[in-house]
Amino acid sequence: MWFPRSLLAVLVFVAVPASADPTHKWVQAWPRTDFTRSAVPLAEIRPGGPDRDGIPSIDHPRFVATGDAGVPGIEPVVSVSIGSEARAYPLRILIWHQIVNDRVGGIPIVVTYCPLCNAALVFERRVGGETIEFGSTGLLRHSDLVMYDRQSESWWQQYEGRAVVGVMAGARLRRLPARLEAMQRFAERFPDGLVLVPSDAESRPYGRNPYTGYDSMPTPYSDDGPLPDDLAPLDRVVAVGRRAWSLALVQARQSITVDDLIIEWTPGQSSALDTKHIADGRDVGNVVVRQRRGDGLADVPYSVEFAFVFKAFNPDERIVVE
Length: 322
Prior knowledge:
Radius of gyration: 19 Å
Number of domains: 2
Distance between the termini: 33 Å
Strand content: 25-35%
Structural class: mainly beta
Largest sheet: 5 strands, antiparallel
Helix content: 10-25%
Shape: globular
Number of helices: 6
Strand order of the largest sheet: 1-10-11-12-13
């Protein structure tokens, strides 16, 4: 969700009270959602600001060649490569829309980004053979985006790719490998790749960060979950499944090998959540996580997210800091 800078500063420090029975606020707006089926306590789901679809998903994405996208080389993009197709989804667009329903290499996918968690995750959007389409509920759980599918109007936790409320409760999306990398790196890896562009470039100030200074805040929007012991809540971590390493550690070592995983860091990517203009954000670097398979290396799903969100959804796991 996005808020004006002054409002965000207040919301970060003031917890939103949970209702003992929140469903009374939702049944009118969500008449097709089955609130008797829930995989999480409903009281953990909080208002996020905008109403349903107040942050509009992109359902008919438009792409251009890398040289025509107008995205500064240092800015972050979520890159997806399936088969012979490679596409980049700039955070300068995702920060305003958060959800892109697309199809790459014949696979229906949903590209998601939750700015409050800095979680950029890509999933296959097929469940039980049915292709579903996602939008934003306008709600949060542990500061993380709660999506909904337009077929059953079940609610889905973005961070987990899991349906948490409605007839689909308990279902999970298949996570797909994707990189969060600088635009220049994507263009070098895929010179024939395509880049998402706005359907209306004037509709929002693309390239601007509506969360100026957020990743330097002492606390996240909502600190209702357990917080990490050895890191500040908004320190970045590299998360692979239920394991995580502090970004500072990966940056210091530049390469870490753990079992069959290789985690590498190189400079040259701006933070999307630092300065007013994304291209001016401090350099947080590029992370690549690959797994040894046979004689080669293959990308695996990972995220460079804030420490608090990893801990909120993995309360029993330790973040490696040294």
